[in-house]
Amino acid sequence: MDIGLMMDSDYYEGQTQREAFDAVLTTADQAETLGFDSIWLAERHFSPPGSAALVPSIGSAPLLLATAVAMRTSRIRIGTAVLLLPLGHPVRLAEEVATLDHLSQGRLDLGIGRSSFPRAYEGYNIPYAESRARFQEYLDVMRLAWTQPQFSYTGTFYTCRDIAVLPTPLQHPHPPLHQAAATHDTFATIGTMGLRLLVALIGTPMAELASVMAAYQAAWQAAGHPGQGEVRLRLPIYVADTLEQAQADPRPSVMPYYERLRQGYLRSAQQFESAERTARAAQLATLTYEELLQERVVFGTPRNVVERLRTVQQTLGLSGFIIEPNVGGGLSPERVARSLYLFTHVVAPQLREAV
Fold first, then answer.
1. Phi and psi angles of residue 24, each rounded to the nearest 5 degrees, phi first
2. What CATH code would you report for 2-252+297-354?
């Protein structure tokens, strides 16, 4: 059971950019000290405080942040959740990932995806409609770069001729690949490709997890891959000494966060005529806090949280959890620190014992 900590590299109102970077690195230090198995860095673009961004963030270059974290830590694994592949060039990223794999002494996990929202693509002047095809070509090129002494590739978007990429990754044949899924068809695609799965409870409510996981595992087995695949669930967790406090403290920031998420789904649905995104927006339009507590977050006392996570893990056969400690960013540093202490000292040991 891998227990990881999600980091969006938050950038709050009234905070300097230097303070935001210092907070990221301090949190990474604390994650290793507290005993987390892994830390996961998001990629966020064009997300200043006060904007309509889902999360105000300075995390536009997660591999650079991951390199800084690798230099400060010695044990914890360092993941990306996720790198938006279509926004760069596959050869350059293959070189950078392999370099970081060496610098981290083989502690890198590579989470990859396309993003459910087109804003980043607009900023890079890349059509979002091309994102799926670009993603596949990008991944194909990176795998060749990591595994072949010399290779050529001719695709619609990327062409390479007789190149030898150095360094090659320290982990063989490359760092573990985890792909994020948000839409139903993506789960089956990831299973067919034989990649590890990252799924977020934010976008996929608890009631839908079993069906999408089944689609992933069925596609995995149909493609002839051994086992059932490996799945990590990313979910908001807040632990407090009393149930009343655990449910009351996050409420003022969590509900506005889900409204921003609804607006993001709505904008992208209107732009791309997506029935699934329209349905997501409609779900969130009527979401009550009581429904949120049941379907999209795990807030409670240590005992409550252990019971819920054990049930989810046993039902779905998860390989790990990635916890989001401050969804919406409204909790004070003191309350986040207390929650993380309770989680790592009370909740996590019981989860590991149950596996």
1. -60, -50
2. 3.20.20.30
The token pair that represents 163 in the structure block: 């190149």
- CA 261 – CA 281 distance, rounded (Å): 8
pLDDT at 269 over 80: no
* DSSP labels, 112-161: EE--S-SHHHHHHT--GGGHHHHHHHHHHHHHHHHH-SSEEEE-SS-EEE
Is residue 184 predicted with pLDDT exceeding 90?
Answer: no
DSSP state of 63: H
Burial class of residue 174, CB neighbours in 10 A (0-12, 13-18, 19+): buried
What is the band of 170 on the pLDDT scale with cuts at 50, 70, 90? very high
Where are the CATH 3.20.20.30 domain residues in the chain?
2-252+297-354
- Find, among 14, 35, 11, the residue nearest to 23 by Cα: 11
The candidate with the shortest Cα–Cα distance to 196, out of 215, 177, 214, 212, is: 177
pLDDT band at 283 (very low <50, low <70, confident <90, very high): confident
pTM above 0.85, yes or no: yes
Q: Is the dihedral of CA 162, 168, 173, 174 positive or negative?
A: negative
Question: Is residue 324 packed enough to be buried (19+ CB in 10 Å), middle (13-18) or exposed (0-12)?
Answer: buried
